[in-house]
Amino acid sequence: MPLGAHKVALFGVAGVSTGDVVLLSSQTASSSASIDFTSGIDSTYGEYIFRFYNIHSGTDSTGLTFQVNASGESGYNETITSTMFRAYYAEGGDASGVLQYAPDDQAQGTAFQFLCNAQPDDNDAGMCGELHLFNPSSTTYVKHFYAKTITFDTGPTCIHLFPAGYINTTAAIDDIQFKMQSGNIDAGTIKMWGVKN
Amino acid sequence: MAMTLITTNTSSDAATSDFTTGIDNTYKLYIFKFYDVNPATDEADFTFQCNATDSTSYDETMTTTFFRAYHNEADDSAALNYDTSPDQAQGTAFQALAVSVGNGADESCAGELYLFNPSNTTYVKHFYSTFNVLSGNDYTKETFVAGYINTTTAIDDIQFKMSSGNFDGIISMYGVG
């Protein structure tokens, strides 16, 4: 079916608004070590939404992660306390459940936060989802985030993941970086949207 | 999905944040987004109720679910579980969206609430929400609330408040066609 007039609403075009949600930037990976958004995160919007379209890993059994950099600082190493849980069901129909997943959460850690895990590098494998980051330019409060992602692991098993938490700083956040836990982002697109408030 | 900003309420030491205009049949979906809601009372819950067009108070009947994931900064407590305390079975209380919100200078909660087709006069009114909370005892808590307002009367007012005390914060209401 031709996308026609629905194309902007579905995928967005940089600088084009769909109501009060504005596509700010779109980046496509090509064997990239990371995808960085280093402009456009400021007090213009109350919420930033990052959407992930078919993130394909260059390395087997790894996952997409993110970290942020506060204004006036260097390095993606802010302190994060987070939760992670996931629902899963194996293609073989022999394993399913919902559980909290401690290996991918953090307690005042400065590591890159997992958005998904155990992602294979199969040609048809990819990860999709979205990350919500609230009020990153605040200089009063910590910065809340939550995400929903979908992938399949090397099982193969369908995995629906729910990372969430806060970046424990009152400094404004103006940079965000996405990268695989190991290896490159072979392919895929990440779009950043701003929500007016 | 075009989303239109209808109203933004900025609260400063306010008892409630009310949206009493703009909820009608213009949109099939209303999304409320919450930016750094900070209570005056430590560990208070952030709640909401609705008012139907045939009544004058915020006391509609709800049946709801509530589950959460949590993890503390000390790294000695983490879980995913259903919490029976904030849910309701045909209750008329204010429904908690975020629980135990910290009142520290940098503590708050943030999230969103989806309310479907509130002006409908045939069906009950479905809603769901997601929040993240920094609690008063230094936990991160992701909370998931869902349910329905068990009335076929149109809903045209919604009120947000803490379970105790006042609050600061920004709440924006969006309409989706």
3D architecture notes:
The complex is a heterodimer of chains A (197) and B (177). By secondary structure, chain A is mainly beta. Chain A contains 1 helix and 13 strands. Chain A has one domain (28-46, 55-190). The N and C termini of chain A lie far apart (35 Å). Chain B is built from no helices and 13 strands. Chain B has 177 residues and is mainly beta. Chain B is 0% helix and 61% strand. In chain B, strands 1, 3, 5, 6, 7, 9, 10, 11 and 13 form a 9-stranded antiparallel β-sheet that branches. Chain B has a 4-stranded antiparallel β-sheet with strand order 2-12-4-8, with no helix packed on it. Chain A binds chain B through residues 9, 18-21, 46-47, 81-85, 98-100, 102, 105, 107-108, 132, 134-135, 138, 140-142, 144-146, 162, 164-166, 168, 170, 195-197, and chain B through 1-5, 8, 33, 35-36, 38, 69-75, 78-80, 105-112, 130, 132-134, 138, 140-142, 170, 172, 174, 176.
Short description:
Chain A has 197 residues and is mostly beta strands. Chain A has one helix at 7-11; strands at residues 17-18, 21-32, 35-37, 47-57, 64-70, 80-90, 96-100, 113-114, 127-134, 143-153, 157-167, 173-180, 185-195.
